[in-house]
Each structure stands twice: as C-alpha cells, then as structure tokens.
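Lab notes, practical 5.
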Amino acid sequence: MKTKILLVEDDPHILLGLEVLLKSEGYEVASCPRGDQALAAAAKQRPALIVLDVMLPGASGYDVCKQLRAKNWTGPILMLTAKSQEIDKVIGLELGADDYVTKPFGVRELLARIQAALRRAPAAAAKTEAQGERAFEIGAATIDPKTFQLKRGRVVEELTARELKLLQFFHAHAGAVLSREKLLNEVWGCHYYGTTRTLDQVIVQLRKKLGDSGGEPRLLLTIHGVGYKLLA
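Output from the prediction step:
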C-alpha cells in the first residue's frame, strides 16, 4: 500500500511539479488548493503526511496547522514558506509543524525532509506510548500527555507534539546535560536534516510556557557549547 501525502498548495505550477515528483517516488498524492478546505481534505484523505504552504487563500497555513493540531491530528506536517525570516519559522514550529522548507527549495532537500518525517512518525508514536500518559511536573508546571496541556497555576498552555516529547525527555533525564545532537536524535529522529537552530527555537517557546523565560532561566538551562539541562 502506497504512502499517501496531502499537498495543500494554491500555485498550480508548484502543485503540478510536486505531484509529478512525489508520484515518481512511489507516493500516492492528494491535493487541496485552499486553506479553508484543508481540514476536510485531511479528514477525507487520511494522509500519512501533509505538505502545507503558508500563503493560502481562505486560511493561512499557520491557521490550518493550528486547527489540525487542535483536532488532534498527529501526523507530520511539513510547511512550505517563501519567507526566510526566523520569526516565520518559529511561528510554524510553535503551532505544531514538524519541519519547514523555504522556497525555492531543491528536490533532494524536500524529498529528504519528507522521508525523514515519515520515518520519525511511527517511532515517535511508539516512544510516547511507551512513556505512558501519566502527568508529570516540571517546576510549578504540571504536564498532562493525555491532553497535550501544561498547567501553571491558572495558566493553561497548549503543547505541540514536539514540545511534549521534549519535555518528557528532559523530565526522564533531569539533572543531566543533554547535547543538542542527542536531543535532536531522540526527539526529531536520527535522520533529521535540519539544524540545531530548530531545537533552540522550540526551547525558547517551552521556557515561555514553563514561566522560565526571564533573563536567567531557572529550570531549563543552556549549557554553552553543549546543549541544555533541566534542573532536577
């Protein structure tokens, strides 16, 4: 059975090129040209992965990504963006995207990122299940894997699948210094093709949700030249 990929892209030339490329690689391809039709398309097509453009008619890729995660769609989302500014990438990751590719992109890069995301997906799901769904605490925050929520007093923060996996891994290795490479291998997967900057961006968001984003973090520490450590 072929792996199905849903393309959400409004540019007919890019869409045609991606369809031809992915079909030549043995994937089954479904497509949707509008952001406001993407949720219905995902529910109908049940893809293994969604390639999601940021600039779409009807609803932006950011809105679509947020809505998919809110409806507990757990498959990998790869965002396509013509913007190269770091803030745009941070927004996509914060809303639940697994990875992003900046236009114009190379065919090999896109295929490598798709293949890596598909490889990570079953392993990540199995790891989360093995870790169980019991709530745990980090500082003053309680993290509930069942609801993907972090509660800190009266504040309730929604967590992306990636943020939850990172928090679970930090909690399981509290007090240990974890290198950026170790965290990327364990949480993103050993075939991740991105940079450590992606991890750093997610850490910034986690600190905000943990209430640890002041000038001197007290929980999630940066170990310069190495990685990060969660204080036990």
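Observations recorded by the TA: The longest helix spans residues 107-131. The first strand starts at residue 4 and ends at 8.
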